[in-house]
Amino acid sequence: MTDPRRAGLLPEAAEYVVVGGGTAGSAVAARLAEAGHDVLVLEAGPDFGPQGEASWPADFVDATRLGRSHDWGYDSGDTYPWTVGFERARAIGGSSDVNGCTQTWGHRRDYDAWAEAGLTGWAADDLAPLFAGGMERMRVRQFTADELTPWQHAWYDAAPAVGMPRLTSLNDLDEAAGFAPEAMNIQDGVRINASFAYLDPVRGLPHLRIVGDALVDRVVVERGVATGVVVHHHGEIATVRAGTVVLAGGAYNSPTILLRSGIGPFAQLAPLGIPLVHHLPGVGENLHDQPFLLMSFAGSDRMAAEMDAARAAGWTPDEQAMGKAASSLETEAFDLHFLPYSPTHRGDDKRWSIGTSALLPRSRGFVRLRSADPEAKPWIDHRFLSDAEGADVAMLIEGAVMLRELAATAALSPLVGAEIHPGPETFARDALAAHLYRHPDNYWHPVGTCRMGVAGDPGAVVDERARVHGIEGLRVADASIMPRIPRATTAMPSVVMGEKVAALLLEEATA
């Protein structure tokens, strides 16, 4: 007899159905399965199996490059005169398959502010053990200063000149400005994705089933209770019953599943012929990401020679060090990232770069359906740099000014060479602002589209236990529930979202 779990077949029912086997979904599923619960993971993309299987795409496993295969194909569409890509991996492991592996936590105030808004259990001290556990599970290693490449080390050495002390780590929740080597989930040159870290240890359990190429269309809701999901799988459409449905599709996909399920703003659902199940106007709203500016320099013969020597001696990661600083708008901690970046896969067309990102954006956008078809791409508009006060642009300008001051220091100038992008023509503040408005860019950290909020908050989608307001048996567990983005790269915070929601579910299961 064929074992459905081994054959990747859809079961008729499961105690917990986790929709999405990505960064957060892998954590949720693993923790529930470890506790002995019956868990089904439905992943829209392929399940390549455990680490070491030959079916894993090379660009997913190779940590020297950003993966681009098996992408959802999301982008800005006709929002701008050009196309901005919103890359997300459609595969087991999700975007942990393709990211730069930088693991940062943010600052205490990020999470304490959530708790102060009424979200009990989400303060920094509540989450700190989950961050520590996630770092261990993801096999994160802290680089040391003597491991930095010459390009990274040059900026690290120069950072104190603009008020950024050299630090040993970026992940002290009480620490503000500084420059430090990164902590990264890389082992022997392999990107340790969430599937390797969380699902591989439990794949052998009889009560865990992982089904790839299973696109969830919608959640089935009967009399206010989520009872299952409708799944497109290998050309067939099936309904899988569930005791609890946990959406973990990320900031773009979790809201679209809710919308197709009839959960969202009625005015958006009616024109698409989607019957209203529950009017929840916050679904798909509050989308935000940290706007980004990439600055490039000509480099120097000395830097090129030092980098060539470093590459000859061993592996030289493109991303390995990061700075954090405060603009004049920031009063609590820091609101800027600086990321030296030296791509090694461009052949002779090398680019010597450093980016700056505004970590606490004021601008808000949305994710909306264009069609009820689950394969139709949604309308994604981050509305980058649209805040009325111009604060997001002001933060990026101040970040660029700091980096230009650094690049002009006696120690760094001979190494980095002249700025070639955005270039001397943008040295005036107004000219740089105009450049930013014409060329918005993202940091690949979308959050907020199913945000947490207390009862009575008209924009909230889930409560502090990640329960969808007005629907029993339905949770959301990913970056979409973040009310406001933390001052961090969001990979590890997303792991923590999964860890936290799993802990809440296990707490209720044993109550």
TrEMBL record:
Gene Ontology MF terms in the entry: flavin adenine dinucleotide binding; oxidoreductase activity, acting on CH-OH group of donors
Binding site for substrate: Y443
Keyword Flavoprotein in record: yes
Keyword match Flavoprotein: yes
Xref: PROSITE patterns: GMC_OXRED_2 (PS00624)
Required co-factors: FAD
Keyword tags: FAD, Flavoprotein
Family: Belongs to the GMC oxidoreductase family.
Stated name of the protein: FAD-binding protein
Organism the protein comes from: Microbacterium hatanonis
Organism ancestry: Bacteria, Bacillati, Actinomycetota, Actinomycetes, Micrococcales
